[in-house]
C-alpha cells in the first residue's frame, strides 16, 4: 500500500496516523497535525448576519493559512475544508457558492485564486459575481480604516444570482467588514443567503468560559 505524506509535518500519513487512516486516506494531513487544528463549529453575529465558523483563527491553522496565502504554498488548498466536505454538501445541498473576492493584482502576485482553490474540494457550483477594485491588506489597517474597506468590493453579473440560494464563503473573519459589505451587495438579488467562514477570531466568542474551553480543546 503506497503511503502519502502530510503537507504539514511531511511524515507518512499512514505511518503517523490512526488505524482509520491506515485503510481510508484522503486527507492531506496526518491525524496528529489534524488534531492540532482548533476546529470548532460556532455561530456568531455580524450585525444582522449570522455566520458559521469552522476553525478558531489561532495556532497551527493560522500558520497554515498564512503559509498558503502569503507564501504561495498552493499545495495546501485541500486541507482546510477536507473534514467538512460531507457536512457542507449535505447542509447546503441546494446552494451555490460565492467566494469572497481578492483583487486581480493580488491573484496575479499569488499566482492562483486562493478561495476558488479552497472550495474546489466541495465540488459545488461556484458563481463569479464579486470583485475587489483595489489590493488593500487589512492587516496593515487600524479598525476604523478596515470598516471602510467595503467600498472596494463590487457586484457584477447580478442576474446570475436570480432565484439562487447562495453560500458566501470567506477564509478568515477578524473584523467582518469585508463580509458585511459583500453580504449587503448579494442579499437583494438571491433567493436565500448564508455565510460560512473557514476561520474566525476568538473575539466573536462572547462567553469567556466557552472561549477558554474551546481554546484548550475541552
Architecture overview:
The protein is of the alpha/beta class. The chain folds into two domains: 35 residues, no CATH class; 180 residues, Rossmann fold (3-Layer(aba) Sandwich). The chain contains nine helices and seven strands; from the N terminus they run H-H-E-E-H-H-E-H-H-E-H-E-E-H-E-H. A five-stranded mixed sheet has the order 1-2-7-6-3. It is globular. About 2% of the residues have low confidence.
Widest sheet: strand order? 1-2-7-6-3
Q: What is the β-strand count?
A: 7
Average pLDDT works out at 85
Number of domains: 2
Radius of gyration: 18 Å
Distance between the termini: 36 Å
Strand content of the residues, in percent?
15-25%
Helix tally equals 9
Question: What's the main sheet like?
Answer: 5 strands, mixed
What top-tier CATH class of the largest domain fits best?
Alpha Beta
Which secondary structure elements does this structure contain, and how are they paired or packed?
Blueprint: H1 19-23, H2 31-35, E1 39-46, E2 49-56, H3 59-70, H4 85-91, E3 95-99, H5 104-110, H6 114-119, E4 130-132, H7 143-146, E5 153-155, E6 165-173, H8 177-186, E7 192-200, H9 208-216
Parallel strand pairs: 2-7, 3-6, 6-7
Antiparallel strand pairs: 1-2, 4-5
Structural features:
single chain, 218 residues, alpha/beta, Rossmann fold, 2 domains, 5-stranded mixed sheet, two-stranded antiparallel ribbon
Question: Could you write a compact summary of the structure shown?
Answer:
The protein has 218 residues and is an alpha/beta fold. The protein has helices at 19-23, 31-35, 59-70, 85-91, 104-110, 114-119, 143-146, 177-186, 208-216, and strands spanning 39-46, 49-56, 95-99, 130-132, 153-155, 165-173, 192-200. The protein has 2 domains: 1-35, no CATH class; 37-216, Rossmann fold (3-Layer(aba) Sandwich), CATH 3.40.50.
